[in-house]
Structure formats: structure tokens, C-alpha cells
Design goal:
alpha+beta; two-stranded antiparallel ribbon; 7 strands; about 55% helix
Length: about 210
């Protein structure tokens, strides 16, 4: 874990700041689940700040961690994440980082929503190219269970992607049909080839 030494130091500082924020947070009870809204917001801030401060290579390294490596980072820094949520969160951001561009500002924190034993927090973030909604799902102990990053694409971008997917799909179908047609066409030559070899075998027979 030497390659993560500097990043772990950053995580420790952010984690400490995150814990300090809980002292002045508001506690809310809903459906028998007690949570600190400021604490949940600070966890989102932790992720967003790390994504903004790390290089793409470092983000990819965190995203590709196995469970043991992720558990080690989480345990050393006292981070409230499940190992899978930690790595998939970095992977989710890595997958859309190019579309988002650099971090600009955090626009708003949604009101946490309780559904059964889960708490969902949506945070809207402004990046250079577009806005994105960061969704975190916590368990009843405010430990992150999953992280999702959803860029907000314009209507023209959505239509363009749909058109490209349609063209790609239709192109694939046509290529497969052409290949099948060629295979079927080649069947016409099989009887002639068999007959040729049959005649040659008869000629070679004494």
C-alpha cells in the first residue's frame, strides 16, 4: 500500500474534518432511523473532494482495489464505507470523469430520504461540462452501501447517443446477416467438391 501513502494522509485529514462537522449537525429521526444530516453531507463532500484532488491514475487505482485492499484503507482511516461501495464509487466516477470535466462547485444537498433501513442522499454538483447527481445510500448506521454518479446530459446528447446505438445495433445485425448469407451460399459448392473428390478416388482405384 506504499503507493497510497500520500492519499491516505489526505483521507485522514478529510475524515477528521468530517467527524468534526458532526458536532454541529442536526439529528433527525424518521421511520425509527436516527441520522445526522450534516454528517451525511460531509461524507459526500469527502468523496467529491477526493475525486477532484486525485489524478485519473490514482482514481483508477482505488477503483481497481480488491476487497482486502479497500478494507485496509477504510480501516486505517476510519471511513464509513463498505468495501464494495468504496471501490465502485471511484469506478462510477472514473467512468464519467471525461464527460464531467473538472469540479466547479457543489450546488445543493438533497434532503435525506429514508426507505426501510436505507437512507438515500442526492448531492447536485457542477462540473465544467455539465451537472451531475451523486447518490449515496447509507444503512441505518450511516455506513455507505453504494455510490452512483449520474451526469445530466442535454436532450441533443441523449438523442445523439440513441441514434449512434441504433446505427451500431442495425449495423451489427446486417453484418451477421451478410455472414450467414455467405455461409449458405458456400453450401452450393459442397456437392461439386464432393463429386470431384469422388471421381478422383475412382480414378486412383486399380
Amino acid at each position: 500500500m506504499k503507493r497510497f501513502k500520500n492519499k491516505i494522509f489526505t483521507a485522514l485529514v478529510l475524515a477528521a474534518a468530517m467527524l468534526c462537522m458532526t458536532a454541529c449537525g442536526k439529528t433527525t429521526e424518521e421511520d425509527a432511523i436516527v441520522y445526522d444530516e450534516a454528517y451525511l453531507d460531509s461524507i459526500a463532500d469527502f468523496l467529491i473532494a477526493n475525486w477532484a484532488g486525485l489524478s485519473q491514475e490514482d482514481i483508477a487505482a482505488f477503483a481497481e482495489m480488491d476487497a482486502d485492499e479497500a478494507e485496509a484503507v477504510i480501516g486505517q482511516n476510519g471511513l464509513p464505507f463498505e468495501a464494495d461501495a468504496f471501490t465502485t464509487g471511484f469506478a462510477a466516477y472514473e467512468g464519467v470523469a471525461e464527460d464531467l470535466g473538472g469540479y466547479v462547485s457543489t450546488l445543493s444537498y438533497g434532503t435525506p430520504e429514508v426507505n426501510g433501513e436505507e437512507i438515500t442522499l442526492d448531492v447536485t454538483v457542477q462540473y465544467e461540462n455539465r451537472e451531475a447527481v451523486i447518490s449515496l445510500i447509507f444503512d441505518e448506521d450511516s455506513v455507505v452501501q453504494s455510490v452512483d454518479v449520474s451526469p445530466r446530459y442535454s436532450m441533443s446528447e441523449i438523442l445523439y447517443k440513441a441514434l449512434m446505438n441504433t446505427i451500431l445495433g442495425m449495423g451489427t445485425v446486417f453484418i451477421v446477416l451478410i455472414f450467414i448469407s455467405l455461409v449458405i451460399y458456400c453450401f452450393n459448392f459442397i456437392p461439386a467438391i464432393q463429386a470431384k473428390f469422388g471421381r478422383k478416388k475412382k480414378e486412383d482405384t486399380p
